[in-house]
Amino acid sequence: MSADTVPVTGWGRTAPTAARLTRPRSYEEAVAAVRGCGARGGIPRGLGRAYGDAAQNAGGAVFDMTGLDRVHAIDADGGTVLCDAGVSLHRLMEVLLPLGWFVPVTPGTRHVTVGGAIGADVHGRNHHVSGSFSRHVLSFELLTADGEIRTVRRDTPLFDATTGGMGLTGMILTATVQLQPVETSLMSVDTERARDLDDLMARLTATDHAYRYSVAWIDLLARGAATGRAVLTRGNHAPLDALRASGTPGRGTRARRDPLAFRTPRFPSPPAFLPEGLLNRTTVGLFNELWYRKAPRARTGRLQRIPAFFHPLDGVPHWNRVYGRGGLVQYQFVVGHGHEEALHRIVRRVSGHRCPSFLAVLKRFGDADPGWLSFPVPGWTLALDLPARLPGLGPLLDALDDEVAAVGGRVCLAKDSRLRPELLATMYPRLDDFRALRAELDPRGVFTSDLSRRLAL
């Protein structure tokens, strides 16, 4: 097992730091890597899709978990899978969809590992129905700082500290996950426009219960009466009967012949270096106008393949390059029900600042899961991508943090790269419990990261 010192960064590419990168391929190599990581400790890393510094460790070790990538067992009757932590959700879809099973929760990219999905307790478009990823995890094996491998089950403090714990309780080695049954690899999708933020929230509140998945793209450059105008997309897994209807994408006969086929489109990558300022208020404003206008006012029952519905950007490798050398910041927060006015204020403030965000999505969260640092709580969550070099971005996001904290909301740690540590305890009430368990489990701070040092986790 070799170890090379390399620059490591998150998907936002904003703050690279150098670390010794090791890639264990067995339990024995994983134990050796943890025991020999040195004074600066180490942190597990999957496919590098955390936007900020959660999987970086300046001057220490980073454990690349993608070498542990085996699917060990599938219960095709009971719908469970036992796999290594380094297996990607993409790989699980390839293996499981032909058997009539789908991952229970997927974020906006399928290029995340199972270990990363647990460590960040990722959520998707179905949180209002299905909760976060950890709700469907039955157990996992955890390599802790003392070099021991523990089997961790639900409803235990170590389970709740690890799900959403950003890799700071130990290295997840394997996991057993409960799956979602499906009849096809297609989605039945309804799309509609909302004229403003109030209209959008009313539509989501009134009818979200009828859909397993829902998400809204928001035009954050629209102002005045159109502030918060949006395109709302919702869907359910298409049953076999839906393939008899017209409008099946591609060749209908092929879809009927192989209804569980998993096909993924792929487009060229953006150039490695793009000019700064490519995404500005003019270009993003034009994109937003075209995107809103081309969306149907109301369309129901369109059949769409799983990659197109869940992961449209995955078809463009390295799409984060379009933000140029400066990189991007993804800012995601949640505010609870009853604090809708805070969401309105934030949308108005971002719109007034003329932030060029072409990726801005609003979702509703359902019941919270038990992870002590798990992000979702019941309410409204907004995520937006912004050029890191946008003038005035730091003060703007600091002000938004204050708005969010004042109403008991929180910022997503898997996306964060700049939160002020003094706000963390307000946002995450179980923070002291997490710190206490971590101090007992790992008194020498073997598992550590740039994120944990920055926020004193």
In short:
Helices cover 26% and strands 24% of the residues. With 457 residues, it is α+β, with helices and mostly antiparallel strands.
Describe the structure.
The protein is α+β, with helices and mostly antiparallel strands. The chain contains 14 helices and 19 strands. The protein has helices at residues 27-35, 89-96, 114-119, 127-130, 157-162, 197-207, 252-257, 281-294, 306-310, 340-352, 393-406, 424-427, 431-441, 450-455, and strands at residues 3-8, 17-22, 42-45, 61-64, 71-75, 80-84, 101-102, 137-143, 149-153, 171-178, 180-181, 186-194, 213-218, 230-237, 298-305, 328-336, 360-365, 379-387, 410-411. It has an 8-stranded antiparallel sheet. Strands 5-6-10-8-9 form a 5-stranded antiparallel sheet. The chain has a 4-stranded mixed sheet with strand order 1-2-4-3, with helices on one face. Strand 8 (137-143) and strand 9 form a beta hairpin. The radius of gyration is 21 Å and the shape is globular.
